[in-house]
Structures are given as structure tokens and as C-alpha cells.
Design a protein that fits this description.
- The longest helix is centred in the last third of the chain and has 18 residues.
- This protein has 13 helices and twelve strands.
- 46% of the residues are buried.
- The chain has 337 residues and is an alpha/beta fold.
- Helix 7 links the parallel strand 3 and strand 4.
- The chain has three domains: 44 residues, no CATH class; 132 residues, Response regulator (Rossmann fold), CATH 3.40.50; 132 residues, Response regulator (Rossmann fold), CATH 3.40.50.
- About 2% of the residues have low confidence.
Length: 337
């Protein structure tokens, strides 16, 4: 597979910063003749095509905020967007909303489209908040943004989120306390969700702390349905010693897994307990109710807008704000004690 050439790749080849590469390409500020020559040589050698993000950057900004989320169908993102909309409206701004459908490759295109509309700033949930060429470029161009749900380990990136690993660790400890010793971890594709990876870290930490063997993650398609998930789960849950519980990386996946297990002839929670993550309202409306980590998703959207405006108006240093979570008991989690 050919290597993807980004502005970071050019900066590494030229031996300078991403911001310097941006200044050379966009002629936005002077640089030394030697540095400019190195950058232009690197661009030519690597075949780099400059992004429209830099070309579209203008002084004039509209009273709109660009929003990029993974899915329009997941209620957790809908709740966050509702919070963003309320907070933006208070500040006489509107939202331009787009979704990647969990395709990391769509992020750059959607961000370029939004920046071309001269949005005042961006709020995003991306596939990977640490290794992300689109965020690199936004930073190089000085375009303000705040991540929501993502929890970047890399410094200098603004975000509003929960402690994904800590929350999943607490939920796993609850399952262990209920007598479960073999707990499966079911997730969306790690390549499309750094949240799923962080939550797996919390699950693994809790299992190891209890002296239990963590299961390897079983990655499923977030947008799959119960029949497709049943096919993927058949080998694991029809084995000789199947897990007694399944911890899912989000609530929509957990609800689909409940349906898939029923398709396989297994009862929840009599045969297998299931828990999710997010705390969507639908999880409390089904029977049995879904055990989950309840996160303040609407508040995340509100706080993300507030943080973005603080950055725009005062030039505040990007920071990560962790909001509290709670464990919500539900009928899908039964005791094995």
C-alpha cells in the first residue's frame, strides 16, 4: 500500500515544522531561502498535493461552526449536536453538520469543505485524535477546533470528553464483582474509533488487576445489524466455555449484540450478560434495560462550543476537559455469584 503523503511527511523530509511548510506553500509569511528550497524540494520529491484548507483560509469568518461526527444515526452524537446547537445559538451562531460514517478517509474532505465555507471554528469527533493529518493541518493554519468524545493523549489538542479507560475499568470491575470471570470485549473497528481502543485499555486493566485473563477484542462493524453480528459472534459464544458476559464499546453495538445473541438462541442476561457505553436513552427504554456507562453527551456539546469560543476570543491554550460519568445498572447485567 502506498504511503499517504501529508504535510507532516513533507515537514519531516524538509527538516522543519509543519507551520513552516504551510507558510512556504501558502506564501503566508516569509522564510529563509534555504528553508523554502528544502520545503519545495520535499514537496516535489514526495508528490505532495497541498490541501484546500490552507488555500481557503481567509480573515473573514461567518457566524457558523463546522461540525464533523462519525454517524448521524447514533443517538450519542445526536445528543452532543443538540448541545452544540443550543450553545451556538446563544452566541448567535449556527452549525454546518457533516458525518464521516466511520470512514477515516472522509475526514479531510469534509473538513476542507467546511473550512471553504469560512466557518469560525470546528468541532470534531475523529477516528484517531493523536495521529491525524487533518488536525495537524488545522493547527498549522491556526484554525481553531475542539474535539468532542475523543480523548487525545497528544498535548496541545483541545477536547471535551470523559475518562474512557477509567469508565470502562469501573464497569468491568462491576461485572467482576457480579461474579463474571470470562468477559468478552466487543468493539467497533479500532481503526475508526480511538474511543473503543481507550475503553479496551480500561477493560484490560481491570481484568489484569483482578488476576483474570483479558479476552482479545472482537472488532465488529458499528453500522452492522443483528444478523451480521450474530454471524461474527457465533464462534465465540457457541464454544465449549463461552464468556458469561460481553462488554461492548458503545450502546448501539450492545443493543445489536443483545439481538444477535437471541438469534443464536442465547438469553440475556440468563445465559450471557451484556453492558454498553454512552448511556443513550434507548438503552433505558428496552427490556431488559441496558447496563451501561452514562456519559453527559449533551453537556459535552455545550462545553465544546464554550471552549471553542474561548479559544477564538482569547487565544486560550488548548486543553482537555474531562466530564464526569456514572455507572447505570440495567437488566442486561445479572449476578453470577
Amino acid at each position: 500500500m502506498a504511503r499517504i503523503v501529508t504535510i507532516r511527511t513533507v515537514a519531516e523530509r524538509a527538516g522543519c515544522s509543519i507551520a513552516t511548510v504551510s507558510r512556504v506553500i501558502n506564501r503566508s509569511a516569509p522564510t529563509s531561502t534555504a528553508v523554502e528550497a528544502r520545503v519545495r524540494a520535499a514537496v516535489a520529491e514526495l508528490g505532495f498535493r497541498p490541501s484546500e484548507i490552507g488555500r481557503a483560509l481567509k480573515t473573514l469568518r461567518t457566524r457558523t461552526l463546522g461540525v464533523v461526527i462519525p454517524s448521524l444515526t447514533n443517538p450519542v452524537f445526536a445528543a452532543s449536536v443538540a448541545g452544540m446547537q443550543s450553545a451556538a445559538r446563544e452566541r448567535q451562531h449556527t452549525l454546518l453538520l457533516t458525518a464521516t460514517d466511520y470512514e477515516p478517509g472522509a475526514e479531510a474532505e469534509l473538513v476542507e469543505t467546511l473550512v471553504a465555507q469560512n466557518v469560525a471554528g470546528l468541532i470534531l469527533t475523529v477516528a484517531d485524535a493523536c495521529e491525524n493529518a487533518t488536525l495537524d493541518l488545522l493547527e498549522a493554519e491556526g484554525i481553531p477546533y475542539v474535539l468532542v468524545h475523543n480523548e487525545p493523549a497528544r498535548p496541545g489538542r483541545a477536547a471535551v470528553c470523559v475518562d474512557n479507560a477509567g469508565a470502562t475499568c469501573a464497569l468491568t470491575e462491576t461485572m467482576i464483582a457480579a461474579g463474571h470471570r470470562r468477559i468478552a470485549y466487543l468493539a467497533g473497528r479500532f481503526a475508526t474509533s480511538d474511543r473503543a481502543r481507550r475503553r479496551f485499555e480500561g477493560y484490560r486493566a481491570a481484568m489484569e488487576a483482578a488476576g483474570l485473563e483479558p479476552e482479545g477484542p472482537l472488532e465488529l462493524d458499528y453500522l452492522g445489524d443483528a444478523p451480521s453480528h450474530a454471524e461474527a459472534l457465533a464462534g465465540l459464544f457457541r464454544a465449549g466455555a463461552p464468556p458469561t458476559a460481553a462488554l461492548c464499546s458503545n450502546d448501539l453495538l450492545a443493543l445489536s449484540v443483545v439481538g444477535a445473541l437471541r438469534t443464536l438462541g442465547l438469553r440475556v442476561p440468563d445465559d450471557i450478560s451484556v453492558a454498553g457505553f454512552d448511556g443513550i436513552a434507548l438503552g433505558g427504554a428496552v427490556h431488559p434495560t441496558l447496563a451501561t456507562v452514562d456519559t453527559p453527551t449533551r453537556l459535552m456539546g455545550e462545553h465544546a462550543v464554550a471552549m471553542l469560543f474561548t479559544m477564538i476570543e482569547t487565544g486560550a491554550t488548548p486543553r482537555v476537559e474531562h466530564l464526569p460519568f456514572t455507572l447505570r445498572p440495567g437488566g442486561t447485567l445479572a449476578s453470577r455469584v
